Amino acid sequence: MGLALLAIIWLITFVSTYFFVAQTWWLPHGVSASTPWIDHQFALTYVIMGVVFVAAQGALGLFVWQYRDRPGAGKVAYSHGNTKMEVTWTVLTAILFIGLNLMGSPIWASERFAPAAADSIPVEVTGMQFAWYFRYPGPDGKFGRTDAKLIDPSSGNEAAVGLDPSDPASKDDVVTGTMYIPVNREVDLRLRAIDVIHSFFIPQMRFKQDAVPGLDIHMHFTPTEIGDYEIACAELCGLGHYKMHGMVHVVSQEDFDKWVAAREAEK
Amino acid sequence: MATSATIHSHAGPQGFIRKYIFSLDHKVIGLQYYFLALVAVFVGMFLSVLMRIHMVWPTAVLPVIGTIAPETYLQLLTMHGTIMVFFVLTTAPQSGFGNYFLPIQIGAPDMAFPVLNMLSFWTTFVAFVTLLAAFFVAGGAPLHGWTGYAPLSALTNSGPGEQMGADLWITSIALFCIASLMGALNFITTTLDLRAKGMTMMRLPLTVWSWFITAILGLLAFGVLLSAGILLLLDRNLGTSFYVPLVVVNGQVMAHKGGSPLLWQHLFWFFGHPEVYIAILPGMGVASQLLSTFSRKPIFGYKAMVYALMAIGLLGFMVWGHHMFMSGMSPYTAFSFSLMTMAIGVPSAIKTFNWLGTIYGGHVRFQTPMLFAIGFVSLFVSGGLSGPFLAQPVLDIQLHDTAFVVAHFHLIMGVAAIFGMFAGTYYWFPKMFGRMMNETWGHIHFVITLVGAYCIFMPMHYLGMAAQPRRYSQFTELAYLQHLLPLNRFITYAAIITVLGQFIFLFNLIHSMFWGEKASDNPWEATTLEWTTTTPPPHDNFGGHTPVVNHGPYEYNVPGAPRDYIMQTDPATVASH
Q1: Mind listing the domains of chain A with CATH numbers?
Q2: B291-346 per-position pLDDT tens digit
Q3: Which CATH number describes the domain made up of B23-259?
Q4: What angle do CA B528, B533, B538 make, to 5 degrees?
Q5: Are residues B349 and A89, on separate chains, in Cβ contact within 8 Å?
């Protein structure tokens, strides 16, 4: 059984590691400014944990086979442990884990502690069962007032987010069901939810943030490649959770301006 | 001590009801918990198989059940999580084995408060029935997941099952909390007050240490969940707004105002993270016990193991925010939560090193309990190493609420903890039932379960990295998930085979109870007190005398000793060490 156990543990380790190393399934291609940083931190963590994984499973398999009870096995070493070794691996693990954590911290800070750049595009994201709506402030640069009493999800767009037409600032607001943003320009997101918690997840942007009723959450990110990317809801929000998806179109600044002008003209 | 010994010196109750149903005997209560968990785990597994089938064949028509709707999937998911976390992972390792063996291992005739013990089991039983009842009321079971995030869980019109079903769900959890508080109090008092002469704290088996620390965690954590649950019931039924701000559901402005959805998350995870350790610590105790016993070698670093348990317990209360990095709480707090979480990796690593150190240089015997203990270590390593990914807020941006998280917690608090239970079952079965379980079937069960668990949960890491969100009933809507379908199907096949494999265990368990080979008093040549008494133990555990302890719990292959183990009760002169 010792040899069988060694074979099973090593085989599991080998197959698991193979798919990680071969990257058969991997992080989706990243298209935001933070991608290189996040992916680098991921790769670093993954290499360190991978080495520990192989070493620990390898040792476990080896030891149970090598020290199996058999006739003629040597004497058992009577020992209650070794303080020096305990201290060594405690200190090493502490340095490793805490060091790894500190290395990742600046990335987190840069995205969250500082406000968005002055020339960023403001977009308000509203989550509701089971759709995303996107609001642009229009030429005045100001989001108009919204009112819970005016919310009517069945009518879509402006009515769905409860835009109050009596506010002058809301006249030029554009509300859509798909998100348009210009490439290489920071997006200043304001996340809202009107019913339950949703989570705004754009896997290829390495972006995720819960949208919480009662909170206005500000986040920012910069798309770096033109293209269409899927948006998913990542927080359980009810029976339609799996189909609460959206699309973000990253376009050139020129196309973006044209798109906004066309929406304004429609109003 | 003398008082409780006197109380139990009389003969046990003879009537069936007092002996087996409303019993005050910790051994009977332990078995009642164990069998409750056994029923629960098969229900929970069955639900998970239905979920896996629906995820990959959403339109399949199943016999009797028919087609599973997306909302039904979420109800299965909620009930699977709740049943498994509370009625399996918290019930069997702690209340089941702990009740049966904690008093015997410390040389006590029973728990400190036998009536409280009975009450806590029957409250748990009522909680379980209450939970299952949610399936049968109008609207069915709730769909808000086992974490029950408000406002989804706080509004009666947020989805199917959020009416009566959700109220039953909360009531069940509240009852469970009350039962766990009673149990925790009992475990702590018993460990502190009823130890036999010579059983110092540093001579306690590591199983007892793990039950003791788990009980402390339970005492501090379940009270918070109980309060949180009561507030949730008030929000739902009496119009309070603890968790609900101004919201509009289906175009209808709700009467709530000013509540905080994050409050629920803070309260829930203040319980929820220690709960992870409540589930896994007893498994660590069993693994330590068995690795030493079956390697015929003292545990490597007994004191380090005890301190590591304490450190895990303490740090476990300071990390709850790592479930909430994406929740909208202040991003500054992520620093401290993340640092504390990484710090918890240190005592966890110490334990792993010490387990390997225990096997190293020993004489490993491959009996079934040992196989599961070795499997526990392997799974603990695999499940543990994905922790440092999720503990980093910056990686959590990508991985939070994906299948990666599902892989992580199933491997470590699900499967590893269940391996602890299997190890405990095969190990203590002879003491509990006086017969041995079948070794051949045990080995087959082990191989199927270990390989199966890895086939189910290792690929979920890949899915999570590829950004497959969790709690999706099907993957038909998002284009980027399409290429993951074959891998998802593979997981479903693996799950069905692994679940079928568990019937081997069930058969072995029931068959061995009646027809297994007769067990001797100490079939594993182990050292702790339960192996000094008869099999099964008498009503007062030690047949009228109180054991006196002269040795630590892991004295194997002591130089100069006549045989390769020294029982804790052997005379002090048996060997000098």
Answers
A1: 2-68+81-112 (no CATH), 121-266 (2.60.40.420)
A2: 999 999 999 999 999 999 999 999 999 999 999 999 999 999 998 999 999 999 99
A3: 1.20.210.10
A4: 135
A5: yes
